[in-house]
Amino acid sequence: MRFALAIFLVFMCSCTSVHSKDSKYRVSINGNEECKYDYGEEDFCSKDNLIFYSNTDKTVNFDHDKVLVVPENNFGYIVIINPKKNIVYPFKYLISYKTLTFDRDSNEFCIEGDISAYRDEDSGYFCFEFTEKHFEQIYNIE
Prior knowledge:
Radius of gyration: 17 Å
Structural class: alpha+beta
Number of domains: 1
């Protein structure tokens, strides 16, 4: 019985690594294929993140044809996935939010809460516009 369990565990581990190596998702930061923002700690191309992107529900909920992935437990990084092009666009700010609003028919999203990236930390209400090259802050009430 232990031998069968060991074989099952080895099989499960090997399947996970195959999925990450075979991931067809590319990560785009500021229009370039990169994995990290300058001075950023998060590796958006890590094995775990590539598996996460592959397993994410691809129901379109943002900007007509994209998926905005909401961080669990109101804390984490937002990523936008273009499921037709298999490109992931990570938002550079780590967020802790009270509310996060966005719409299927718009390329804008708003955060009420805290945002931080490297030495830039802020609290308030922030709105951003997404283009395939970058995120631009369009509104801020602190």
